[in-house]
């Protein structure tokens, strides 16, 4: 339902849109991109947008989760120690961390669609190269490059956010988590069949197929109209809005599309501007903590499945007279996943679905801040549901970050947050795969402490974005 600009500002307290007063013929009506999006409403275009941009989560999940199901095999093939296995995951997230900032900066300056396409091409290319890695060093380097490409997949979420009407964002964006879960289940299922038969190299090649297929359908999604209007490309923004209205069978607002005041886009200093400094700092803390907990749980479950109870047994390991090395005598050094382990990983992944409906309700009725605080707090008392709860946190913080920043710095805000997120993910392997072997209690206490800090940060966030329109300029 269309809402007059004045009423929208008074009723919802929307964003502080500072528009450039252009000279229009006296009495001629004007409208903003925000008003056009709300007037056009939800329809067929948004369903297509949800399916295509949401599917970027399938490709991302397969590339990220790939390490968990390949680690036992490369450990055996290259006789790796614990820290070497952990380093693989850390370097993937290091690549993600570095490129997340760069691609976020470029997306605010040159467009979300272009960077999304570039990131998929980049990730698919280096993922295929990884399957031919001749050594451990090459494997680590190439997976780090894959991580760099995957970091650009966040632009798909930004494009969805910028096209969705306000009241639908709290429902449609959390539902996108289904695609991440589908990708996680798909890679685990494929690993259970491919790894024991044709090997991990073919698993990597097969895992790159969804990303390649998505590249072919990106042409059906246009560049963000909010981005185009922020660059002064009013004609392109108007053409996109008219296309959406035609696809949805809806009418455009009356009048002329007006352009907001020009502002430089993608500047780091805007993130630490007094208006956003506290919000940015707390968002970074939350992103770091959520990633630390999420990937820590995934890798810890893989580690526990890889090493069965015999690893903690006092009984002496079976001796192999052909090899006198200490590692070769250990039954824990090289133990591949069996069918039962893959089944357990699938059940654990499906568990993420359980809280998704509650997460959606919390986001829309309690608000982003309180919902984030509650889910972080629940993680402390319900460790058996940890993965599902962290997944719910990811849903909420993704939405909050995309909503709290204006268009001129939205991609950079998401990029820097994603970068800090990967710092947590880089540390997680050493806690789950190294510290946990020495002290399970110590690792558990560390995860819980991080959750407490994140819950406090979430509760004290200064801005609530529930029901608020997306800001166009700072």
Short characterization:
With 474 residues, the protein is mainly α. It has helices at 5-12, 33-40, 44-54, 56-78, 82-110, 112-130, 136-150, 154-163, 166-175, 177-194, 200-207, 209-217, 225-230, 234-248, 268-271, 277-306, 339-350, 356-365, 368-381, 386-404, 410-438, 440-459, and strands at residues 30-31, 256-257.
Kindly, what is the distance between the CA atoms of the first and last residues, rounded to a whole number of angstroms?
Answer: 27 Å
Shape: globular
Oligomeric description of these chains? single chain
Helix content: 55-70%
How many extended strands? 2
Residue share in β-strands: under 5%
N-to-C order of helices and strands: HEHHHHHHHHHHHHHEHHHHHHHH
Helix count equals 22
What can you see in these coordinates?
The protein has 474 residues and is mainly alpha-helical. It contains 22 helices and two strands. The chain has helices at 5-12, 33-40, 44-54, 56-78, 82-110, 112-130, 136-150, 154-163, 166-175, 177-194, 200-207, 209-217, 225-230, 234-248, 268-271, 277-306, 339-350, 356-365, 368-381, 386-404, 410-438, 440-459; strands spanning 30-31, 256-257. It has a two-stranded parallel ribbon. The chain is globular.
């Amino acid at each position: 339902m269309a809402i007059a600009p004045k009423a929208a500002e008074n009723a919802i307290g929307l964003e502080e849109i500072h528009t450039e007063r252009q000279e229009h013929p006296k009495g001629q009506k004007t409208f903003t991109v925000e008003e056009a999006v709300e007037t056009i409403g939800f329809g067929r275009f948004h369903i297509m947008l949800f399916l295509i941009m949401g599917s970027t989560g399938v490709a991302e999940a397969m590339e990220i989760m790939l390490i968990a199901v390949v680690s036992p095999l490369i450990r055996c093939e290259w006789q790796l120690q614990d820290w070497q296995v952990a380093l693989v995951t850390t370097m993937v997230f290091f690549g993600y961390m570095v490129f997340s900032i760069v691609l976020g900066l470029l997306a605010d300056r040159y467009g979300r669609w272009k960077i999304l396409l570039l990131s998929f091409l980049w990730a698919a290319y280096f993922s295929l190269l990884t399957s031919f890695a001749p050594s451990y060093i090459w494997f680590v380097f190439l997976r780090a490059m894959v991580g760099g490409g995957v970091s650009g997949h966040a632009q798909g979420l930004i494009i969805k956010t910028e096209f969705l009407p306000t009241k639908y964002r709290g429902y449609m964006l959390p539902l996108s988590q289904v695609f991440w879960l589908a990708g996680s289940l798909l890679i685990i299922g494929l690993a259970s069949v491919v790894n024991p038969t044709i090997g991990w190299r073919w698993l990597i090649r097969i895992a790159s197929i969804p990303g390649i297929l998505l590249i072919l359908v990106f042409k059906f999604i246009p560049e963000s109209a909010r981005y185009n209007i922020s660059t002064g490309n009013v004609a392109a923004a108007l053409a996109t809005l008219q296309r959406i209205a035609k696809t949805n069978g809806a009418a455009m607002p009356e009048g002329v599309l007006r352009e907001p005041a020009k502002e430089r886009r993608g500047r780091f200093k805007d993130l630490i501007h007094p208006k956003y400094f506290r919000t940015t700092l707390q968002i970074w803390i939350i992103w770091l903590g959520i990633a630390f907990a999420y990937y820590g749980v995934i890798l810890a479950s893989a580690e526990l499945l890889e090493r069965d109870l015999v690893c903690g047994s006092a009984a002496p390991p079976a001796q192999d007279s052909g090899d006198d090395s200490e590692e070769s005598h250990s039954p824990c050094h090289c133990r591949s996943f069996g069918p039962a382990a893959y089944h357990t990983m699938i059940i654990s992944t499906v568990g993420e679905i359980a809280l998704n409906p509650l997460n959606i309700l919390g986001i829309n009725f309690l608000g982003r801040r309180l919902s984030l605080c509650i889910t972080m707090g629940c993680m402390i008392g319900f460790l058996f549901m940890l993965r599902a709860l962290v997944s719910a946190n990811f849903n909420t913080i993704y939405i909050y970050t995309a909503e709290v920043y204006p268009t001129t710095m939205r991609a950079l805000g998401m990029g820097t947050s994603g970068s800090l997120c990967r710092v947590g993910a880089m540390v997680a392997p050493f806690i789950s795969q190294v510290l946990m072997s020495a002290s399970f209690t110590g690792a558990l206490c560390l995860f819980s402490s991080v959750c407490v800090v994140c819950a406090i940060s979430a509760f004290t966030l200064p801005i609530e974005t529930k029901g608020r329109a997306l800001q166009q300029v700072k």
